[in-house]
Design goal:
28% of the residues lie in helices and 34% in strands. The protein is an alpha+beta fold and 309 residues long. It has two domains: 3-122, Probable inorganic polyphosphate/atp-NAD kinase, domain 1 (Rossmann fold), CATH 3.40.50; 130-303, Tumour Suppressor Smad4 (Sandwich). The protein is globular, with a radius of gyration of 19 Å.
Length: 309
Amino acid sequence: MKTLVLVNPASARGKTGQQWPRLEPEFRRILGDFELATTTRAQQATELTRAALLAGTERVICVGGDGTNHEVVQGFFDPQTRRALNPDACFAFVPRGTGRDLGRSWQMGTELGPQLQRIADSPIHQMDLISCEFTTAAGLDWHVSLNAASFGQGGDLVHRVDRWKWTGGGGLPFVLAGIEGAMFVKPWEIELRIDDGPWERDSVRNLGAFNGRFQGGGMEFAPQAVLNDGVLEVFALGSVGAVKSVAVGIASFYKNVDGMSGVWTRQARRIEVRPISGQAPMWVELDGESPGTAPACFEVMPSALRVAL
């Protein structure tokens, strides 16, 4: 199988690049022959993936964080037609980022050898994706999301974590950013439509559509989520105070928060959000990246990606 291993040396705050000379022999021992590419700037992973697939690559293995995974999978699709460039190509990843939420959803563990052996031995699985249409300064844009997509405080949190240049891993930066955001960000008044239902008014701090179970470095907001069931798990945190918002976020690391006051959940295939005018921008968050704002629409893409995991 013609394989591209795409490495983001800046992932894990630069540790991936520092450790790659030691890691590469293990990759080649277990995976065999592959082409190697490294990124040096944002969005390059998308470009490299797209070029490789058009040149006949059959498998792309991403070595980086959730943001790099997000970039790589954009390269599997034509953004104009929104169709797969090569429907037979497959994706795999080795989690090396800060949050590692997709790795948690796939139960990838933390040891490199077993991760690579799993990629080498695994049959191909079908994975759902989330089609995400959102707003930018240039107009409407479109991405696919692998793990989770959200409106509101999740996007604000991404901007805060990125500004801090955190050098460690795990959930601590997300907790601290969540506390800061809860203190300074007010709930958004929105119009919301789920599937083919009517437009309704609501007030939320955060509204997420989940394909995987985790977000924000290990917050399990969607414990019932399945990566290939054709539906999204919707999690909403309503118009609660700062203390309650922080309490829900912290609790999500160790228990199911469905049923806590201010929280509602349901399943959906499509969710649309329009903020009421006159408010702060309602950032969207897609796999730990925040490329735009609402108005936005998230919709499940059943069995849209072949995955070798």
